[in-house]
Amino acid sequence: MRQIYSFYYDAFMIALKSILEHKLRALLTLVGIIIGVAAVVVVGASISGLKTYVIDQISKVLGSNHYMMTRMASMEQLSEDEFERRNRRNKDVTWEEYEYLRDNLRLSTYVGAQMNAGADLQEGTIEMPSVRIIGVTDNMYEIEDKTLAEGRFFTKEEVTRRSPVAVIGTDVQERLFEFTSPIGKKLKIRGVPVTIIGVEKKRGSFFGQSQDRHIYIPITLHNQIFSRTNGIQLHGKTIEKENFLPAIEEAELMLRNYRKLLGSEESTFSVVNVDEFNKTMDSITSMIAGVVIPITMIILVVGGIVVMNIMLVSVTERTFEVGLRKALGATRNQILLQFLIESSLMCVVGGILGLIVALGATQAVGALLGMTMTITIAYVILAVGVSSIIGVLAGLYPAWKAASLDPIVALTKN
User: Fold this and answer.
1) Could you state, in order of their start, the residue ranges of all structural domains in the chain?
2) Nearest-5° angle of CA 35, CA 36, CA 41?
3) Confidence band (pLDDT; 50, 70, 90) for 221?
4) Residue 93: strand pairing partners
5) How confident is the model at residue 347 (pLDDT cuts 50, 70, 90)?
6) Is the Cβ–Cβ distance between 249 and 210 less than 8 Å?
7) How far apart are CA 55 and CA 275, in angstroms?
8) Quick one: which of 390, 314, 290 has its CA closest to 34?
9) Is the pLDDT of residue 199 over 90?
10) Which long-range contacts (CB under 8 A, 24 or more apart) does 368-371 make?
C-alpha cells in the first residue's frame, strides 16, 4: 500500500514540476480547456437565469397559484388547423358564467374577471397612443399579487356602482404626469373622465414589451365605455398551493356542467395556469440546452487535441528521462500512468481555472442584462467531468508512445 501511495505521489509531483517548468506553454495549452469549461458553465447559468427571469416576470404579471379561463388561450404553440378548430368550437366566457362560478366555487380563494381594450390618451398637449385599458373586478389586486407605488385600488362597491376611478401604470404616470403626483387628477378615456386613485409599482418589460403601459378601471365601467359584446377572462386563485390543481379541476367541471357538456365532449373553453407555463419553460430550456451545450463541448474537444499535441512534444523532450526510468526498473504501466496523470492534471487545473472565469463572466453578464445568473451544479459537474475525461483521453496516445520506447534507444537520444 505504501509503495502504491509513494508511486502516485511521486508521479503527481513529477507531473506538477513538469507543468511549472513550462508555465507559459502550459497556460496556452489550457486556454481551450479554460474557455470550454467556462462556456459550458456560463451557457448553463444563462439558461437557468433565463428561465428564472421569465418565470419571475410571469409571476409579476399573473401572480402565483393563479389560473385563467377564457375562450382561446394556450401555453403551447398551436398548429393552424388546431387553432381554427378551437376557434370554431370554443365559446366566450360570459358574465353570467363568471357570476355562477364566483358564487359556487369552494376551493378557489378568489374568483375575478377581466376585459381588455385599447385607447389613445391625451393630457393637455401630451398624447399617449395605444394604452391598454383593463377592466377588472376589485379582487384582481389579490389574484395577480399587485403592488402599488402610491394610492389605492378600487373597492367592490366602486365596481358595483361603475365608479369613474382608475389605477394607472408607471409608463402612463411618467408620460402624462411626469413632474406631479397623479393622485386625484382626472383622465379622459374615450371622452369619459375618470379620477386616478392609484399608481401601480413598476413591473418593467417582458420580452421587450412594457408591462406598465396600462390603466385599470372597474370592469362594469369598462363594459359601459367600450360596449363590448364579446366575452371576458375569468381568473381564479388559491392561497394554499396544495389546493391549486384541485381548484382548477373544480372550476373546469363546474363550467362544463353549466354548459351541459357530456363527459366525452371536449371543453368549449381554454384554461391556462402559471404551473403550465413553468412546465413549458422547462421544456424550452431543455431543448435549448440540448442544442447549445453539445456545441460548447466542441471547444473542450479542441482543447483536448491541443493537450494531446503538447503531451507528444513533452514525450519527445523527455525521451532520455523515460529511457533512464525504464533502465532503473520502471514498468510499462508506470510510464503510461505517469503521462496520463500529467495530462489529466493539466485538464483538471484548466477546469478549475475555467470555473473561476465562469464565475466572473456570469456576474458580469448578469449585471449587464439585469437578470440573475445561477451557476447550476449539474453544469459544473458536467464541465469539470468532461474536461477530466478529455485529459485522460488526450494523454492516452502520448502515454502509450512513451511507454513503448525502447530504453536503449531512448538513452541514446540525449
Assistant:
1) 2-57+279-412, 66-273
2) 95
3) very high
4) 232
5) confident
6) no
7) 10
8) 390
9) yes
10) 371/49, 371/50, 371/52, 371/53
- What does 396-413 look like in DSSP terms, one character per residue? HHHHHHHHT--HHHHHH-
Radius of gyration of the chain from Cα atoms?
A: 33
**Residue indicated by cell numbers 384554461:** 271
Task: Cell 390603466: give the residue.
Answer: 215
**Residue pointed to by grid coordinates 428561465:** 51
Q: Position of cell 422547462? A: 282
Three-class SS of residue 387?
A: helix
Residue for cell digits 502515454? 399
Beta bridge partners of 119: 131
Q: Which of 311, 330, 298 is nearest to 396 (CA)?
A: 311
Q: How far apart are CA 169 and CA 158, in angstroms?
A: 19
C-alpha cell at 103: 358564487
15: its cell numbers: 507531473
Tell me the C-alpha distance between 45 and 377, whole Å. 10
Residue 162 has which C-alpha cell? 361603475
**Which of 60-64, 287-291, 394-398 ranks highest by mean pLDDT?**
287-291
